[in-house]
Amino acid sequence: MLEHILIGCGFAFAAAIQPGPLQAFLMSSVAQKGWRHTLPASFSPLLSDGPIALLALLVLNRIPETMSRILQGAGGIFLVYLAWASYRQWRRHTHNISDANDSAPRTLLQAATVNILNPNPYLGWSLVLGPAVLAAWHESPANAVVLIIAFYSTMVTTLACTILLFGTTRFLGPDGRRALILVSAVTLGALGFYQLGASVVRGWPA
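Predicted structure:
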């Protein structure tokens, strides 16, 4: 069970601190309304990801085992690619997530809409979380539940901390941002190689 907790927490942390539409919204909203009014937006993935997760799990549950292993391996490659991109960003000394729309969403529901229109949850559930949840379910339903709880509790907590950092410390300054990007790269790389290894092991005869 600890293995599934680590997978959920690790992927959620890396995803939450990666630059993207939701992070841009958070920065814009904090700048306009302050962190107190923005804090509820940290729960937006709980609203937006339900249909995405259900669709991904229904599709993945109907495909052959071989294709499931291929998707798990593809998810590992995807995570390694994200790790490499984060590492290159760290090397370039840049971490720009401030390109926010001037008319940023103001409510939790609108923040969830931003996330629904974001491709990252679809990729995450199709290539990483979906295969991981199904593999955990085949071991024990409790493992799958624990993985999902670990993922979303870490996601919400990390987004909430990000909002607080935006509002109180201007997000740690350049050195702090670089450090977080490096942590993200290491986490994504470790998860990616784990996914690749797991996809190979699943293909071995019992």
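Summary: Residues 2-200 form one domain.
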